[in-house]
Amino acid sequence: MSHDFARASLLSIVSLVLAGPTGCGSSKSDEVVAVAELAPLGASAVDGTVTFTKKNGEVHVEARVNGLQTGDHGFHIHEFGDCSAPDGMSAGEHFNPDKTDHGAPKAPRHHAGDLGNLAGAGSGKQTTLDMKLEGFTLDTGPRGILGRSVLVHAAPDDYTSQPAGNSGARIACGVIRLRGGDTQPVTAPK
C-alpha cells in the first residue's frame, strides 16, 4: 500500500512541475506591442516614437516626441498607413470606423482616432504622453489600428470643427507596426 502511495505522490509532483507555475498575474504571452516611428513631414523637425501596448484587454499608448514647439498639437490615428506624401495627406482622414463626428477623446461621440492634443514641451525638450485608449484593438480587425498611421499636427485640436478639429498642417507621421513582426500598412482603395 505504501508503494502505491509513493507512486501516486510522485506522479502528482511530476504533474505539478510539468504544468508550470500558476497565479493571478498576467504572462508576457498575452502582451502585444506595436510601434510607430514618427518621421518629420515637410520642413518639420518633429520625430519620435509612439508605442501601443495591449495587456489584460486594454490598449495603452506612450508617446515620446521631439521637436514640438510649446503649446498643444493635434494627435490622431489616421485611416491609412501611408506617410509618403510630404504633407502627410496620404495617411487619409482620422480613423473613424463608426462614421461619427469629430470630437474630444472623452466625448460621447468622436472619431476612434481622436487622441486629443500633445502638450509641446518646447524646443530641445521631449514631449511625453501616457494614456489608455478606448475603442481600439491592436490587430487588423474593423477597430484595429495595426497598419494605420499616427500623425502630429502643427496646431491644437479644437474638438469641435468638422471634420478634423482644425489642427493645421501635418508635421510628423508614423505607421503602426507590430514590434518584431511584419505588419502590412492599410492602403487607400484604388
From TrEMBL:
The keyword Repeat does not apply. It holds the Pfam family Sod_Cu. PROSITE patterns: SOD_CU_ZN_1 (PS00087), SOD_CU_ZN_2 (PS00332). Binds 1 zinc ion per subunit. Binds 1 copper ion per subunit. It catalyses: 2 superoxide + 2 H(+) = H2O2 + O2. Residues 46-176 form the Superoxide dismutase copper/zinc binding domain. Residues 88-124 are annotated as: Disordered. Its EC number is 1.15.1.1. It comes from the Bacteria. SUPFAM superfamilies: Cu,Zn superoxide dismutase-like. Residues 95-104 have a biased composition (Basic and acidic residues). Its cofactor is Zn(2+); Cu cation. GO terms for molecular function: copper ion binding; superoxide dismutase activity. Keywords: Copper, Metal-binding, Oxidoreductase, Zinc. Destroys radicals which are normally produced within the cells and which are toxic to biological systems. Belongs to the Cu-Zn superoxide dismutase family. This is Superoxide dismutase [Cu-Zn]. It comes from Nannocystis exedens.
